[in-house]
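Closing statement on the shikimate-3-phosphate sub-project.
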Amino acid sequence: MKISLTHPNRRTFKKTANLSGTVRVPGDKSMTHRAILFALLAEGTTRIEGWLNAADCRSSLEVAKQLGASVSFEQESLLIKGTGGSLKEPENVLDCGNSGTTIRLFSGAIASQVSFACLTGDDSLRRRPMGRVLKPLAEMGAIAYARSGSYAPFALIGQSPLSAIRYTLPVPSAQVKSAVMLAGLHAPKAGGVTTIIESQPSRDHTERMLLGFGVQVDMEKEGEKRYISIRAEQPLRATSVEIPGDASSAAFLLVAAAIVPDSDVTIEHVGLNPTRIGFLKVLQRMGAHVEILNQRESAGEPLGNVRVRYQPLSGTDILPEEIPSLIDEIPILAVAAAVAEGKTTIRGAGELRVKETDRILAMAKGLQTLGVHVEEADDGLTIIGGKLNGGVVDSFHDHRIAMSFAVAGLAAEQEVTIENWSAVDISFPTFSDLILELQRERKFE
Ligand code: S3P
């Protein structure tokens, strides 16, 4: 037995022999949030297949219900009867739990409703910056009162009609972009076309999925700059959405395959949206054997199978322009860097400091505990690779930190125990089961 449950909220991972086999990971978290929200806004009943049934997406589902969605289940599918665009005034505070995507995207939709809503979340979410969405929404005409000016809980008093704006994103954030786009759907004043300008491409699931709900989104490119425009008063029509496996969840298993000798792991049916798979390019550059097989498209999103075979890794420089395409994979790439030969630098990743926890600090502390030479920068990390020792590390209640150190434990010299392990339920409740499955299927020499 390679994984032992030592305490309900602690888990220990030990050095393993090769990982091998073909598995699927749960549905994409970003896409599930959007499918639930767009279904709430649409006229008719939307069927969502492959949705992620994990704590973050259940937060979106609960908030959607409070805003008027009727939710039912048919085998594995989620059925949501929408409101046709007129949200119900919520009777209670909207608790978004740990989910930044829930609080920021739903705010964009609520901003145009003539109603009062109060949004909040857990300790982590209440520490994360909300001014980045409330500011543009206020510019469009919504009224927001936030704790200390820009933190949850905040009250949002929607206004109708809103004014269209031209908004340059101060940070490359798909959550902010999506919130402004959703408000733009009800912003007929000031020309009626809301344009968001991003200088680094952030994930584009909103743009792709809105098309499926019958909304026209225009995109123009000028070098790396993108202009995303949305015209007001376009109704959403219910549809069927098929959600592929989450590339960010697959990343943990694929990095595990890249660092545990003799491994050969394939993840089937996983999302391959180019704005999400920067980590595969980095792994390849570090020397991992990466193959993309059976590439296809469904519901406007590319997907396929990804196979990674072990090969010794070397350090690399992860550059600022690569960051948006791998922002959620930096913790697990830091683990790959810790076992790679030589130095890895990660820069331009200051956004990591305002994720579920300060991920730069959490990774630096945890890797130091495991005997790795790490230096923290304001916007990244420098890691000198070598071998990992064992130790007890804290997830800081962050799902991606917990799983990154679990993978570290599979390659470390001694066992690694992760405190506050239950955070994995936020995005990947079956993580440990899949690791066990890949251990069971392993090849014996
Ligand atoms: C997400 C966008 C990213 C990402 C988060 C999910 C989304 O956040 O880190 O896990 O679904 O739009 P930012 O928009 O803050 O960069």
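Residues 30, 33, 101, 173-175, 203, 327-328, 351 surround shikimate-3-phosphate (CB under 6 Å). With this model delivered, the sub-project is considered complete and its resources will be redirected to Aim 3.
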